[in-house]
Amino acid sequence: MKKYLSIFGLWFCQMLTFASVVTLAKDRIVVAQDGSGDYRTVQTAINAVPDHSTRTITIFIKKGTYKEKITLPEAKTNVTLVGESRDETIITYDDFASKPDSAGKNIGTSGSSSFFVYGNDFTAVNLTFQNSAGPVGQAVAMRVTGTRAYFQNCRFLGFQDTLYTHGFGTVELYRGCYIEGTVDFIFGAATAWFEDCSIFCKRGGGYISAAATPDTVKYGYVFYNCHISGDVPAHSVYLGRPWRPYAKTVYIQCDLGDRIIPAAWMEWSNKDNKATTYYARYNNKGDKELSPPTWTHMLTDKEAKQYQRAQVLGDWDPRFIK
């Protein structure tokens, strides 16, 4: 009897070890167009992720241009995408707002995105997200609806409405990213912190941000230590205009360059936005060259302390990924 128990015990331990190996293997998925990985497309890899995962599932994407319209569903939580090379691992599609759907109706700005993030706790590192439709109106590269979305060393390429921080009352962090566009190319309702990012204003543009901050949310967009450049003429771009009446946008310790219009901010078409919008700057390189309207703000040292990352993002503090 003891002999059989020992054999059973050995078999059981082997099964546990095998199960552990299988579990660990599922924590990392490889995508490669040449077939050398687990999947050839990013979408099929995302589909393979277990629903409502409480552990991080990493999808490593090898170099290549992946022309896919991708959706990360709400059930796909704790997913991390890592590109082999930021500039050579490109996820792209070419939809645009005025493109008709199968019923003949325009797909709209929200439907034009190349990548949709609905799942919470999403991370992307070393990737390029692109809308390649060109200057044809609204054409989104990335739309984020889920909360606690973290982007590190990513590029967002497009023209109008490149990056859609869509989530109502959600938080997002962009660190060391490159974001380009023409009109309102960073827009939406989320609370978003941009740190050490390069903002590139493309020719034909006029507005960097168009926040739609809800009136019940304290923080909207905070740009911290970011650099603004572009191929537009000097003094031709606004820092922002309010997509919704309670838009909140603050630039702190940024290099504003020489592309910004001296007025810096615009109230859009509704003069009443002046009373509800909160636009502010603090200790930026280039502040002295600006003469913004009196309804905007220059933060005091005391006020600026309220705009640290911990205050803006709360207890969410994603780690830097090496």
From TrEMBL:
Limits of the Pectinesterase catalytic domain: 29-311
Signal peptide: 1-25
Highest taxon listed in the record's lineage: Bacteria
EC number: 3.1.1.11
Catalytic activity: [(1->4)-alpha-D-galacturonosyl methyl ester](n) + n H2O = [(1->4)-alpha-D-galacturonosyl](n) + n methanol + n H(+)
GO BP of this protein: cell wall modification; pectin catabolic process
Alphabetically ordered keywords of this record: Aspartyl esterase, Hydrolase, Signal
Enzyme class, spelled out: hydrolase
Coiled-coil residues: none
Gene3D superfamilies, alphabetized: Single-stranded right-handed beta-helix, Pectin lyase-like
Pathway as given in its UniProt record: Glycan metabolism; pectin degradation; 2-dehydro-3-deoxy-D-gluconate from pectin: step 1/5
GO cellular component: cell outer membrane
PANTHER family: ACYL-COA THIOESTER HYDROLASE YBHC-RELATED (PTHR31321), PECTINESTERASE 53-RELATED (PTHR31321:SF57)
Designated name of the protein: Pectinesterase
